[in-house]
Amino acid sequence: MASGFVYRRRVEFADTDTANLIHFTALLRFMEEAEHALYRSLDFVGYRWSEDSVFGMPRVSVSCDYLGAVRYGDEVNVRLRVREVRRKAIRYSADFTVERSGGREVVARSDWTVVCARREHGSLDWQGIEIPPPLKARLKAMKAAGG
């Protein structure tokens, strides 16, 4: 079995278009949900508001290749992998699979990069900051374990 963090999400009616197919943006939401579920599993919060600032992990790059149909009611497994951990940025990849009669089918593949950032209240400018050491250590361990 492939390594990585797995997040499961059922395709709801609101995720689909009039052809009963998932709207392309829904898989990007699933990707972000998987990322934040990973953070929670590592005892970390990916978005925090405080009195003086906001902390977040905004995406700076996203790509997704759609390889197969996904329909209302399908359960999508998002297998997220840590590809690279830098000083301020993390690069992820994910395979999206759906159970079919012949087994699990890869229906999409995605890559994205997030940057650890902070924005002071009253400012529109985000400033890149170093990844908190506990998160960085956990992500590096996950990468070393193959995912």
Question: What is the topological layout?
Answer:
Blueprint: E1 5-10, H1 24-41, E2 48-49, E3 53-56, E4 59-66, E5 75-85, E6 89-100, E7 103-115, E8 117-120, E9 127-128, H2 133-144
How would you sum up the major sheet? Answer: 5 strands, antiparallel
Overall 3D form:
globular
Gyration radius (Cα, Å) is 16 Å
| Helix content bin | 10-25%
- Structure summary, number of beta strands: 9
State the helix count.
Answer: 2
Overall residue-averaged pLDDT value: 94
Order of helices and strands: EHEEEEEEEEH
Question: Which descriptors apply to this entry?
Answer:
single chain, 2 helices, 9 strands, 147 residues, four-stranded antiparallel β-sheet, alpha+beta
Describe the structure.
The protein has 2 helices and 9 strands; from the N terminus they run E-H-E-E-E-E-E-E-E-E-H. The protein is of the alpha+beta class. The chain is globular, with a radius of gyration of 16 Å. The protein starts with a strand and ends with a helix. Strand 2 (48-49) and strand 3 (53-56) form a beta hairpin. The chain is 20% helix and 42% strand. The protein has a 5-stranded antiparallel beta sheet with strand order 1-5-6-7-4. A 4-stranded antiparallel beta sheet has the order 2-3-8-9, with no helix packed on it. The model has no long low-confidence stretch (mean pLDDT 94).
